[in-house]
Amino acid sequence: KDHKSSCSCVSAGDENDTSWYTLFTPTEATSIVAATVMSHNTILRLSLDYPQREELASCARTLALQCAMKDPQNCALSALTLCEKDHIAFETAYQIVIDAASTGMTYSQLFTIARYMEHRGYPLRSFKLASLAMTHLNLAYNQDTHPAINDVLWACALSHSLGKNELAAIIPLVVKSVHCATVLSDILRRCTMTAPGLAGIPGRRNSGKLMSTDKAPLRQLLDATISAYINTTHSRLTHISPRHYGEFIEFLSKARETFLLAQDGHIQFAQFIDNLKQIYKGKKKLMMLVRERFG
């Protein structure tokens, strides 16, 4: 086929009323057909001049965008990649992702596209997609090895690097979606180690001051982390066996580190331990271990 007949399957239909979706699935059309059409080998094999190459590339991008609209879950990232060199097509592909984010995309797909956007040098778009991904996520108290944890940590690091406003925008989403105490405490620790905005976009000013855990936005994250430790402690104690006692004491030690980030944290933690000793006094050996470590 010459390049013109290759273009015909991209259009809504040619004189034979043939359209691409009668021949390929959207995934096949983007990953095989459009990618092959735009490859360097195809250009060489067909001996195309510059206008012909541009026409063929335009057809491939149109095909990729149609596929992304039909099946955003499986084709959006391919469409973005294929449309990188054409500003209007790239903007269209990005808008397709945004429109599909609330209904047709999973958090893992959105995180993948968000990471791609950061790699391409669009940190604010990356942040927007990461925020949308967070709204689809629900990480339970006992899911401390969940596959999305690295994405959550990355999204928080991205927002932290952009500045205080972005960090303040993502923290409520984190608090709503993540209920795992160890993940929340990891995010909190990372946020308190450096000032927000230090690795942000060029020209963005920042104070360079470390953020207080007693003020917004970190206060909300601190409160959520403490609550998660309290809830997880009670959940663990419901069905704990003696072989997990040592692990549980270490968990309480991690909890104490988080409690102590609050202004009255030592008082809160002492009350928490006293409460445990009252409620679970029947677990004598475990409460003895708690007394030995925490008084």
Automatic annotation (TrEMBL):
Species per Swiss-Prot/TrEMBL record: Xenoophorus captivus
Keywords: Metal-binding, Zinc, Zinc-finger
Protein name: Zinc finger SWIM domain-containing protein 5
Residue ranges of every copy of the ZSWIM4-8 C-terminal domain listed in the record: 109-286
Keyword Protein biosynthesis belongs to the record: no
